[in-house]
Design a protein that fits this description.
The complex is a heterodimer. Chain A is α+β, with helices and mostly antiparallel strands. Chain A is built from 13 helices and 15 strands. Chain B contains twelve helices and four strands, in the order βααββαβααααααααα. The longest helix of chain B has 13 residues. The chains are: A alpha+beta, B alpha/beta. At the A-B interface, strand 5, helix 10 and strand 12 of A face helix 2, helix 6, helix 7, helix 8 and helix 10 of B. The structure holds iron/sulfur cluster (SF4) (4 copies). The site of one iron/sulfur cluster has 12 residues of chain A, from helix 10.
Chain lengths: 371, 288
């Protein structure tokens, strides 16, 4: 990151304009249907000004304040994941001509320069994990094409929700890398740091000034306060061995009695990557499309192998979610699959809390003296 | 519950086109309309098979033999009890479509009551009413090859099943819960943001998560999904402040005849102060 600069609040619109000048379609946070969602946004006034988000297990409520801040809330149900790993995407089509010959054609990878303004640190960490999955050795053309054309403006999180625990996973609340531009919101405006060549070019085009020492101090203090205010945490060690040593722990039955196996936790989790595929046959018999959809380890199909369900019940499905997320991920991608965003806690219809379940299952196993 | 398909329909023997019949038992015709509304696709369908009976479309031959028999409606009268046997014997694939045919439909509410008492209290001359004591799913009377739930079924769902069958493959039986569809569509959860008693977590999708997309709690039209944790969800509704009779009523819409929903309705009616639904509040609490 380069030297920190300052963008006065009344000039925030110039950020949208300069990004638009570069040919990007701007997306950003906005209020819709009682939540903060990311969608097309080219007007700074349409940001969630004076909005906060109260979150608790199984509960999410917007709150209204008399301040002018527009990023004073913790994440809503989704951010980057649906923009890159599409919830529904046609992979290929097959057509049959009059002679009965089949022709297969891959769907053209989408091409669109998109900029997302207001991305949080937890989602940038999750993005790195999704990159490892979708843009690694077996790259997914759709993902890679959308990813390549993405410009990211991160915003440090000054107002974590009750459900957040990114400090304990080491993924927030400050944006440290992965963003082209990173902002810290203050009352008077934004501290701005560039994180890439594209970010530096953008900085050169913005009406920035040098920040005062007081502004720099205030920014650091807000982030430190955000860090301190988080009350939930995951044990800071690798839980892989503890989880796999406790596959018969009674807590799995306990959580299964509260879990609906609805898959909402997976759908909102920014790192989950499972998908399924469906056929969409045309009624005239001349065409069919192959479509990929978000799946989850709570669905029957996910464990359907050779005529039987390997995970027939909620207990084994919840166990799959937790052991993969916090255990198997270490083997696959060298770290836990949880970035501490808290979404699975807030958006679980029955308020199941991953930090409590993981702690209940892993704590007994923890050797004395290990914090 | 979606039924896993049995064997694919073998291709018609080549000398004739496959025959499709659309039958009706006790129902509102909404599912037939869903198919009739297919527009151009209906013409494409008619090019690939002979539609031998489809009352809503004006094609009448009740006794025609068929390769595929879509059946709308529940078995609610002695005459229908006979007719479903006849349909079975003349059809290679029997495919109940809609909540009535797959679970009894709204009329299955009488299964939770004494139907004779109801008939006596509604009709001045009840002796003219010929009704079975229960309204049953088609599968309670005959074997079926595939079920297409919904109230009504969606046009696409029926067309997909027919297109797959006509291609000689096993139709896909949807098993995902409405929540998955709701999240894929980027909809904001009404249960979490507004405490609305949404049945999405226990209901099989097929509707495109229509109601949550319009800010309403899911009514469970498509019926229980696989592994439906109905008691857990019912308890959650109670924890969110729904009175026991209101919890019971959430499971007494089009799918009260589906076993897990019926069980929840009975369990929560028993917990209501006077043991039966009173008029304390709407079953649709949680909406502004
Ligand atoms: S497991 Fe939960 S808290 Fe962790 S990244 Fe996924 S949604 Fe966020
Ligand atoms: S936790 Fe479940 S849905 Fe998520 S990536 Fe792992 S197996 Fe897939
Ligand atoms: S933990 Fe919660 S969100 Fe996840 S499947 Fe269970 S009930 Fe649904
Ligand atoms: S609104 Fe209903 S269907 Fe949608 S996620 Fe919430 S509980 Fe599930």
């Amino acid at each position: 990151m380069t030297a920190t600069r300052f963008l006065p609040r009344e000039r925030l619109q110039t950020l949208f304009e300069r990004i638009g000048d570069l040919g990007y379609r701007c997306m950003g946070p906005q209020v819709r249907d009682g939540a903060i969602v990311y969608d097309d946004l080219s007007d700074a006034a349409a940001l969630p000004v004076g909005i906060g988000a109260h979150q608790a297990p199984g509960r999410y409520r917007l709150e209204h304040y008399a301040h002018a801040r527009c990023f004073a809330w913790a994440n809503g149900p989704q951010a980057l994941k649906p923009l890159l790993f599409a919830p529904e995407e046609t992979l290929w089509r097959v057509t049959r001509d009059a002679a009965g010959r089949l022709a297969f054609a891959a769907a053209a990878p989408p091409s669109q320069r998109r900029a997302v303004i207001g991305v949080r640190a937890c989602d940038l960490a999750a993005l790195a994990l999704q990159d490892a999955h979708f843009a690694g050795d077996h790259a997914d053309p759709g993902y890679v094409s959308r990813r390549r054309d993405l410009l990211l403006v991160g915003v440090d999180c000054g107002h974590p929700a009750d459900t957040c625990f990114c400090a304990s996973t080491g993924d927030g609340p400050a944006v440290s890398n992965g963003a082209d531009l990173a902002l810290t919101e203050l009352d008077a405006g934004f501290l701005v740091r560039a994180g890439s060549a594209a970010g530096r070019a953008l900085c050169d085009a913005l009406p920035l000034r040098a920040p005062s020492d007081a502004e720099l101090h205030l920014g650091a203090a807000e982030i430190e306060h955000a860090r301190q205010s988080q009350r939930r945490s995951l044990p800071a060690r690798n839980l892989r061995d503890a989880l796999f040593a406790n596959l018969d722990h009674p807590q799995w039955d306990d959580v299964a009695a509260r879990c609906l196996a609805c898959g909402n936790c997976v759908a909102v989790c920014p790192t989950c990557f499972c998908s399924t595929e469906r056929e969409q046959p045309a009624i005239d018999g001349r065409e069919a499309a192959r479509v990929r959809l978000w799946d989850s380890c709570f669905s029957a199909e996910h464990s359907y192998v050779h005529g039987r369900l390997l995970r027939p019940d909620t207990r084994t499905r919840y166990r799959q979610w937790l052991t993969h997320k916090l255990g198997g991920w270490h083997d696959q991608y060298g770290r836990s699959g949880c970035v501490g965003c808290g979404r699975c806690i807030a958006w679980c219809p029955t308020g199941i809390d991953i930090t409590r379940e993981a702690t209940a299952i892993c704590t007994a196993d923890q050797p004395e003296g290990e914090a | 519950m979606t039924t896993p398909p049995k064997a694919p329909l073998p291709p018609a023997d080549g000398r004739r086109r496959p025959r499709l019949a659309v039958h009706k038992l006790s129902s509102c015709d909404g599912c037939q309309l869903a198919l009739l509304n297919a527009g151009e696709s209906l013409l494409a369908l008619a090019e690939r098979c002979d539609i031998v009976h489809f009352a809503e479309a004006g094609i009448l031959d009740l006794d025609a033999e068929a390769d595929i028999a879509l059946v709308e409606g529940s078995v609610s009268t002695p005459e229908e009890r006979e007719r479903i046997q006849a349909i079975r014997s003349r059809s290679r694939w029997v495919v109940p479509m809609g909540a009535c045919a797959t679970a009894g439909g709204p009329q299955a509410l009488r299964n939770l009551a004494d139907a004779e008492v109801w008939i006596g209290s509604v009709y001045p001359e009840p002796q003219h009413i010929q009704a079975l004591p229960t309204a049953d799913a088609v599968a309670a009377h005959v074997d079926v090859e595939l079920s297409l739930p919904g109230c009504p079924v969606s046009t696409q769902q029926v067309l997909d099943a027919l297109a797959t069958l006509l291609a000689g493959a096993s139709p896909f039986a949807e098993q995902d819960k409405v929540c998955m569809e709701c999240k894929r569509r980027g909809q904001v959860c009404v249960l979490v943001t507004r405490d609305a008693p949404c049945l999405g977590p226990v209901t099989v999708t097929g509707c495109g998560a229509l109601c949550p997309g319009l800010g309403r709690a899911c009514y469970g039209c498509y019926g229980p999904a696989e592994n439906p944790e109905v008691p857990t969800l019912a308890q959650r509704f109670a924890d969110l402040g729904l009175a026991p009779d209101a919890v019971a009523r959430r499971f007494m819409f089009q799918q009260s005849g589906a076993e897990p929903f019926q069980q929840a309705a009975q369990d929560w009616r028993r917990r209501a102060p006077d043991g039966a639904p009173g008029n304390a509040g709407s079953a649709e609490q949680g909406h502004d």
